[in-house]
């Protein structure tokens, strides 16, 4: 069965970076895009970007350009999302989600990773 | 890219029908037929309810239906049930190869 397992909760100081992992199982990792979505407390989800695990090509939301980096390691079927220069407003649950082709919907989601930015 | 516009809240009694709108622009909702709807219960990841404007994934009740006209998509839930109470979000792919979410609608079943 398809499963996306994310890394555990993180607490970071402002200005630091955080790297969240998303390990895929139950399907061919390179056959599906991985998107990253975050949801701040009490807010709606916000799309951050996506990576094509086959080619490593990425596409980021404009507001995260220059601050987010999405990578993957096909040998361990894992995608990563690193967000740098953290601010308090980056406190959110970060999700990875799977998409079959470029414009397909999210069919499976990770369990979410809470990132707290606190001084 | 601005968020798609949804009403903050809607409500209905059990058995009734409700419709949630999702308004975008000619660069997103109006550009493609790639609008999806997700249901989210507190503390849970979103669940896909409708994709490509009006298609239901396997396992989703046929009480859920979707449509689109111009730059506005809609989600209709008929025969409201208590378990339908949740937050609902629309998404759309955009002409610039990105994705945008709606601001979300809280559905209350009275």
Question: What does this protein structure show overall?
Answer:
The complex is a heterodimer of chains A (119) and B (110). Chain A has 119 residues and is an all-beta fold. Chain A is globular and about 40 Å long. Chain A is 0% helix and 51% strand. Chain A is built from no helices and 11 strands. The mean pLDDT of chain A is 96. With 110 residues, chain B is mainly beta. Chain B has no helices and 9 strands. In chain B, strands 1, 3, 4, 7, 8 and 9 form a 6-stranded mixed sheet that branches. Chain B has a 3-stranded antiparallel sheet with strand order 2-6-5, with no helix packed on it. In chain B, a hairpin with a 5-residue loop joins β7 and β8. Chain B is globular and about 40 Å long. The termini of chain B are far apart. The mean pLDDT of chain B is 95.
Offer a quick outline of the entry.
Chain A is an all-beta fold. Chain A has strands spanning 3-6, 10-12, 18-25, 33-39, 45-51, 58-60, 68-73, 78-83, 92-99, 106-109, 113-117.
């Amino acid at each position: 069965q398809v499963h996306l397992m994310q890394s555990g909760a993180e607490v970071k100081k402002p200005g630091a970076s955080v790297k969240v992992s998303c390990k895929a199982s139950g399907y061919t990792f390179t056959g599906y895009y991985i998107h990253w979505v975050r949801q701040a407390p009490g807010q709606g989800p916000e799309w951050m970007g996506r990576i094509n695990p086959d080619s490593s090509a990425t596409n980021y939301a404009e507001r995260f350009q220059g601050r987010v980096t999405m990578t993957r390691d096909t040998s361990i079927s894992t995608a990563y999302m690193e967000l740098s220069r953290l601010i308090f407003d980056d406190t959110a649950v970060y999700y990875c989600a799977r998409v079959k082709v470029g414009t397909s919907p999210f069919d499976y989601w990770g369990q979410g990773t809470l990132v707290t930015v606190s001084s | 890219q601005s968020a798609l516009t949804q009403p903050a809240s809607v409500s209905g009694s059990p058995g009734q029908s409700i419709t949630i709108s999702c308004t975008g622009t000619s660069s997103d909702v109006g550009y493609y037929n790639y609008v999806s709807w997700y249901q989210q219960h507190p503390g849970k990841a979103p669940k896909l309810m409708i994709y490509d404007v009006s298609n239901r994934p396997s396992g989703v009740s046929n009480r859920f239906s979707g449509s689109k006209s111009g730059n506005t998509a809609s989600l209709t839930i008929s025969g409201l049930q208590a378990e339908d109470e949740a937050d609902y979000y629309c998404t759309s792919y955009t002409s610039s190869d990105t994705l945008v979410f709606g601001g979300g609608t809280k559905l209350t079943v009275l």
